[in-house]
Amino acid sequence: MSALIDLDGDDMVSASPSLRLSAPIVTFAFVLLLTIGFASIQRPRSAVALPTFAQAHQVVCSTCHTMVPALNAYGRYIQSTAFGALDPSIMQRALPILVRESVSYRSTGKLDPKAPADRWTYANISVNVAGVLSKTLSYRLEQSLFSNNIGGGNTGHFWVSYNQLFHGNGHLVVGKLDPPAPPAFSYWQDQTGFASSGISVGQHGYNLAGERWGVGFNYVPIDYQRMPYRAQFAYVGNSPSMFNASAFSSSNPYGPGGNGSDRAFQYRLAWARPDRPLELGFYGAVGSYILPTGYVAPVDAYKAVGVYAQRDPVKSVPGLLLFYQRTYDSNVGPGKASNGLEQGATSWAAAVELDQPLFKGNVLLGFRPVEYLSGLQASKTGFDVQTTAHPHYGAFDLVARDPKFSPYLYLTAEAAVAAASNATYDQPAWRIGLKWAAPVAIPAK
Q1: What are the structural domains of the chain?
Q2: Closest CA to 189 of 312, 279, 77
Q3: How far apart are CA 385 and CA 372, in angstroms?
Q4: Under a CB-based contact definition with an 8 Å cutoff, are residues 329 and 321 in contact?
Q5: Of 436, 433, 347, whose CA–CA distance to 398 is shortest?
Q6: What's the pLDDT at 356?
Q7: Predicted confidence (pLDDT) per residue in 212-260, tens digit
């Protein structure tokens, strides 16, 4: 990898991609999306992902990000190779450690008009160690030190990848990893992520985006011009004991691994090239969830399937994200032994978002007009159909940074009018975040 991606289609004379000030253009037509995407052909150049990677390669974060943490086409390519596409000799220029801190404010849309409805958190600190040891091995460790003003926290990413399978096209990832899903589920610039990735059906919520312990395999062809596709597969769990067979034993369904034990096979297949802003794909999951004691059938078999399209904001056209997914559970309840019921349910979710860069890419305005969630919960008396099929109306996000002041500092402001969760008194939920992520040392000369 020896150069940068020119996502504007212009030749570049420096390490920093130039982003034009473009006027907002509204387009919902999927045909137009396809036409523009396939017509936007750029030349591949070298890029990086995390701040330490940008530091080592002496490029700006916009090389891989539309707006941190949202990845552009080349950033998604680097991420899907588990950093295996990076040059390890260049990565030696930088210490592979970075620190993250964020301050956030959140109102709840006044769920109770007589009670205060806002909250500040000042201490959200984590340490990341990420890098490339050789052409063969790459790694990432993310540990929270403070979360929501409380000391300690969870381990985020914690994986090692072997990157030389199938002549360098295959990457075997082991540890706590991102399961296969649309990239925007895990890497997006909005203050609030997509609720669809964790939609609840029956007794549990799906975990299509959050890090999970498991084993993954990514097939990302180096010759992407001839083979412009990617395939990702993973077997993941959410309990300390992933491979505990007794958790699924008919004689002991609540053994080690216990109630709530969740195992899933997840996948994503996509048409995606690092030199084109358009990505199209489909994704899914097939899993099992152990229900609470007392259910006639102790295991709930579930599955999800979805399609998505994502186009980066280039060539004076706003970015566009579309997805639609369906889920199915075999046993959402009530299912208690007392009433002897066992029943399944389906749900669906969909969203669209437009994103427009402003002021040479240093400000990004995002508009999510609707994210629709339709789920069915189980109760002791029957299906809960009163509160699970409401759309979330609208989220407006404004992300800004000043690279002259600090290339690692980002401000996000969001106004969300969410009929299903926050705006019960017709007042929007306000969310503000000030995020900082920076390497701990300057690169060696």
Answers
A1: 30-439 (2.40.160.10)
A2: 312
A3: 15
A4: no
A5: 433
A6: 95
A7: 889 999 999 999 999 999 999 999 987 554 544 444 454 444 444 456 6
